[in-house]
Write a structure and sequence with these properties.
Length: 363
Amino acid sequence: MYVAVKGGEAAIDKAHKLLADRRRGDRDVPALTLEQIAGQLSLGVDRVMAEGSLYDPELAAMAVRQSRGDLIEAIFLLRAYRTTLPRFGYSQPIDTGAMQIERRVSATYKDIPGGQLLGPTFDYTHRLIDPAMAVDETVDQPERREAQQESTYPRITDILNDEGLIEPDIQSEEEPTDMTREPTSFPANRDLRLQALARGDEGFLLSLGYSTQRGYGRTHPFVGEVRIGLVEVEVDVPELGFAVSIGSIRVTECQMVSQFKGTTADGPRFTRGYGLVFGQSERKAMAVSLVDRALRADEFDEQRTAPAQDEEFVLAHCDNVEATGFVEHLKLPHYVDFQAELGLLRMLRKENEETSASKEAAE
């Protein structure tokens, strides 16, 4: 129960002005442009797009700027804007096999068809502050490499599948659930779980994925493949009778290979964990694939013993916008609630003192 605070409008207005002033910072320093944010802070922008469920680098950069770099606040802003947009229909499933590859690595095979493509990554850098970051450095343009297509970059899981060493990738015939239009219910289908994980908080999912590797979940993971690149988005046009490409988006896909005991009918074989997110975000995609595999415990008759295997716990708490709202609402006035509990506590203490006094008198 909340109570109105009189005379608060003027204070709130001043708080907004102070926020705008702090956001701008030192006036002697040029203001950040959206192009600078989208181009030079692209990984932060990618995270905002992924967890905001809206692919628009300019809008995401605007949200980052407005939020003063608070990415969860920026995600909240983008989600709120997303709710105002009209919905014209659904796109076709994107074909990540035909991705224009920018980065593609596998931890299961050294020599893979098409070769390992390192791309832009921190994996091989020294984790030391570079003094060159203090100045406006000029970096030589890297040599451009023509993007390769599906025929050059077959999936690693397809190689295992050809030998019958991994569970088949079965395509569901059911229409996917849209979690932005339908309330989440349990038990949840895998497509709903993957939607929730794709827009879930990276830090939360990273911790859960880490927990599965330390024994709190039935996984023995290997990165079958991580690939980053551009994929076309196609929409069916009824008047034409075929799908038309409306543009390209950058995505990160991770296929995690895990082991399980197997059955008498199928024999021992690897199982799959899958993650797909907007932008370049392989840590998030890997975490999603680990948690996806952990949440499939029932499919393999595995006992659920760890938090990462509890879909209600995971899906109900992985959304950082909901978590932020619930935690930060504690800053709002709770005067009446607190006074009620304070009064109850005083009454209980008084009763306790009277009881103690009676016992002492009886003795």
